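Protein modeling request. Please complete all fields; requests missing the sequence field cannot be processed.
Requester role: graduate student
Desired output: 3D structure, token encoding
Chains: 1
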Amino acid sequence: MNTYLLAGASSLMAIKTAELLQQQGHKVIGLSTKPNAFNYDLFHQVEKYEQGNFPTIEGSIDGLVYFPGTINLKPFHRLTAKEFINDYEINALGAVSFVQNYLNQLKQSPSASIVLMSTVAVQSGMPFHASIAMAKGAIEGLTKALAAEFAPTIRVNAIAPSLTLTPLADRFTNTADKMEASQKRNPLKKVGTADELAQSITFLLTEKSSWITGQILAVDGGMGALKI
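Delivered output (228 residues):
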């Protein structure tokens, strides 16, 4: 049995990941700025994802996943410096603090893994995505830098999804017309689900991906690679 720690644990994507990990017999600990929404083996509510707010967790940790993120889509001229800073702090600096805080416990594991969250918009270039693409671009750089620095003892990878059916993205899929338009834009003519992303995250966390590190895994229905 391994122990996995999920930040942003009240999100649907985190809950689906926790379900899969528990089904495989693992222990899952959740951290969230929101109340507990799932039967985690252990749960801590925190004020912010920054140093001084993380709880002490005893024993080694075999994997970390950082789920917190934002979807702040606006024309570039309307984005304020405050919005750029907020997106960067939540998406990138929060991940940095999370990993730094539990790094020593990851080092105690014989097969540790870190999974971070990016977006298809980093590599594809999409209008109105300037702030989130910049923040998640930092995550992709961080993923590769840490994978190099922590090798061979800790693997580090990231997931880069396109639009997924989660509460965070609800405003883009909350009507039949919006859903149809989103499906038509995707090469596989569908919008992803939290279950599908959870499968990929769980794969990267566990020994099934033991020879994979420093990768940005596109889980996007081909959105970032195909033009159909």
